[in-house]
Design brief:
Distance between the termini of chain A: 34 Å
Helix content of chain A: 10-25%
Order of helices and strands of chain A: HEEHEEEEH
Shape of chain A: globular
Radius of gyration of chain A: 15 Å
Strand content of chain A: over 45%
Oligomer: homotrimer
Number of strands of chain A: 6
Chain lengths: 149, 149, 149
């Protein structure tokens, strides 16, 4: 029931995702995502396929001097021997190369489907929801459970 | 000594607390707190009983468009087979419905007593201390160890 | 391979480091660092020896009303029975006693070498890299992998 080894492996993959992004080693996302995957960021539609995730990351990250993705509150639910869902929080800080722009911060949630493929846990689907963005702006994909108010 | 399964269960409950708050599913605090509990937030006195925690949460959260509670640095000390103390850090971000108010951020600490009751780890006592609040203001419950300077 | 007990012990030591700093119990760094150690903060040169770390911490922390070090994304790689490397993220918030100064925030990375000495995991070397600092300023030790762009 506790599946502590599997939890540790998924945690490690979550942080590899962050470093692949923050260190501009975007090709390392191929080690985290399943080849057939869905990635839905707040301000893009659904992307399909790990290589498309890499390409998109490489493109959008070029505008930043630095980013940092702090992942916390990782909650994993195993749905089978090789499958799990996970919810986690992220505070994603973005500093633009254009120094006239203020830092942009996403207070987000990752809603994931994980699958163990050939012995490695990978993201089959990641949906990024927004609690909010600084500076304040509208749009994005709000968690419907919060938005119900 | 390591009690890794118990740690994982307490971690999961810590994050359930955050989601119950951030997703406005305040009734889920009944799954986290012991029925007989104490919750001391920085700007209220001690509250007693899980239902009072739910009622207070529902009341104060109504003023926010969104909140997010990032919990980190979770340190657990087991004091018995079914009891533990825990210290953790929280960065609690609050965005008001009133858009003229700036986001409020609490840099806090949770000082907890946990107890396993009928097989489930629950919060018997949670005291929220403040490292600081943005925008800067006075008041709150400062960690006396820091305040000794 | 998973070494879950060792991971938990290193996690605990990481958080003890944060509390030793944030609670001004700087002498507790002697419980975290190896006696012979290197600590390289972004705005100092390399420091050698745990007592020098304590002295430096006590000196620089005196200017702050409060600090909080949120550690996340802890990734540990065991390199031997008693040795490991680790990368983690830190969001280090600093509030000055001088109220005319804005809060200073370091978005950093800890790049560590850990060693188990007499049964306790300790930091043999910690290098603090900077993703960025708020308010924005130049200088510091940038992760060369990010800086390659």
């Amino acid at each position: 029931m506790h599946r502590l080894e599997d939890r540790a492996e998924i945690h490690d993959q979550m942080f590899r995702y962050a470093r692949a992004t923050d260190w501009l080693e975007t090709e390392n996302h191929l080690l985290v995502f399943a080849e057939e995957c869905v990635f839905a960021s707040p301000h893009s539609g659904d992307m399909h396929g790990a290589q498309n995730v890499v390409d998109w990351m490489s493109r959008v990250l070029a505008q930043f001097e630095a980013t940092q993705h702090h992942i916390s509150n990782i909650s994993i639910t195993f749905t089978g021997e090789h499958t799990a869902t996970a919810v986690s929080y992220v505070r994603a800080w973005h500093r633009f190369l254009d120094q006239s722009k203020p830092d942009m911060i996403l207070w987000g949630e990752y809603h994931d489907k994980w699958e163990r493929i050939d012995g490695t846990w990978r993201i089959r689907e990641r949906r990024v929801l927004e609690a909010g963005i600084e500076p304040r702006r509208d749009g994005g994909a709000v968690n419907p459970r919060r938005a119900k108010q």
